[in-house]
Amino acid sequence: MVPAHRMCPPRVPPLIPDPDEIHVWRAGLDLDPGDRERLLQTLSADECARSEKYRLKRDGDRFVAARGILRELLGGYLGVGPADLRFRYGPFGKPFLITTPETDDLLFNLAHAEGLAIYAVSRARNVGVDLERVRPAVSIPPQSRGL
Question: Which of 23, 37, 99, 138 is most buried per CB count within 10 Å?
Fold first, then answer.
């Protein structure tokens, strides 16, 4: 099986969803060092700086993977190199493509939790995704419930 982070849309021809479609992708974020370095090369200076601010190296590496894979996906949709994409950020840090005639109607959203990311891509339609780790229920003994 091909690792999820290598299942990107082809660069030629660009893959564009129909107006009534939403494409959903998933990717593992725990990459080997070679893939991490390759993705790191596609990030902007501000993304690289942000990846260095994580307290745990694992979390910074996962940020690199999530953003690098996002760039590969969007670059595949638009037929451009991942490093050529430019983003602006909303008030809560949500990335948006800086619009050009090529990117004007391509919208996306991403979420990640621990070692997994999910991406949604659409055309001219706002999309949102969320991802959470489901933790097993903890059994509380009856004598502890009143505490």
Answer: 23
pLDDT tens digits along 33-88: 999 999 999 999 999 999 999 999 999 999 999 999 999 999 988 888 999 999 99
Query: What letter does residue 23 receive in the DSSP assignment?
Result: E
**In this structure, are residues 14 and 79 in contact, taking their beta carbons and an 8 Å threshold?**
yes
Q: 47-56 contacts: CB < 8 A, separation 24 or more?
A: none
Query: ∠ at Cα 97 (70, 132), nearest 5°?
Result: 45
Tell me if 16 sits within 8 A of 9, measured CB to CB: no
- Any idea where the domains of the chain sit in the sequence? 4-132
- What would be the CATH architecture of the domain defined by 4-132? Alpha-Beta Complex (3.90)
Q: Which residues contact 21 (CB under 8 A, 6 or more apart)?
A: 122, 123
Q: What is the pLDDT of residues 95-138, one digit of tens each?
A: 889 877 766 788 999 999 989 999 999 988 889 999 888 878 77
CA-CA distance, 141 to 136, in Å (whole number)?
16
Query: Which residue is associated with the tokens 């190199």?
Result: 81
